[in-house]
Backbone:
């Protein structure tokens, strides 16, 4: 079965410093992986996706993630945090590799940005 | 422009009183999903429609039902809400071809349901 583990439930950074949100996955096939962001009382917004093309994936708002098969990781990074980045972040894997796409969510990482 | 629209944003109902949440989409996606998200937790998939085919998750209570009268609309019915059903309910859509690589889901802003 496919699963993701977000290694930190809460990350706090200062504005202007780098962001690292860690995610490890488990999959019996080449996975499709996503990062979503959720601001308070809002739905989830797609940041970026990996679907077996380039291993370094660039997303919106300056975020990027690198797929590392040897480490089964898909960590999310950003060079410089902004106050507006404070939100909940979910690492997600697709349950299957084609067809219907039920998603398997990690438990989320809450990112706080300190001025 | 909002592409997945959920109404209302906030819904209050009484214990045991049926309630319906609605979702509409302008994306013409063939798959629509309903998730339940409780405070500080990840979204939990309740069920999804692939066109007209209904797919229920094994652990979704019978109290939860869904209808999809056409491509654009999907409804979540809670027949007898209990206090434990208070949550944010998220609707999502995706365009899927049976043999295509996975496509991302597009989420609405959710309906927050409170039970009195």
Residues:
């Amino acid at each position: 079965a496919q699963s993701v583990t977000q290694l930190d439930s809460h990350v706090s950074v200062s504005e202007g410093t780098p962001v690292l949100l860690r995610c490890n996955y488990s999959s019996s096939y080449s996975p499709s992986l996503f990062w979503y962001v959720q601001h308070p009382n809002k739905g989830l917004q797609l940041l970026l996706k990996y679907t077996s093309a380039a291993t370094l994936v660039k997303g919106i708002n300056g975020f990027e993630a690198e797929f590392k098969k040897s480490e089964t990781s898909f960590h999310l990074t950003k060079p410089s945090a902004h106050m507006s980045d404070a939100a909940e972040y979910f690492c997600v894997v697709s349950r299957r590799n084609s067809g219907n796409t039920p998603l398997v969510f990690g438990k989320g990482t809450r990112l706080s940005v300190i001025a | 422009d909002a592409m997945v629209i959920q109404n209302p944003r906030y819904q209050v109902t009484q214990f045991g009183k049926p309630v319906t949440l609605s979702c509409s989409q302008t994306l013409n996606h063939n798959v629509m999903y309903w998730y339940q998200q409780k405070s500080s937790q990840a979204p939990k998939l309740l069920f999804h429609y692939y066109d007209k085919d209904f797919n229920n998750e094994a652990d979704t209570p019978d109290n939860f039902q869904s209808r999809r009268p056409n491509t654009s609309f999907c409804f979540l019915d809670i027949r007898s809400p209990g206090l434990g059903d208070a949550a944010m309910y998220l609707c999502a859509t995706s365009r899927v071809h049976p043999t295509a690589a996975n496509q991302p889901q597009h989420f609405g802003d959710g309906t927050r349901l409170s039970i009195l």
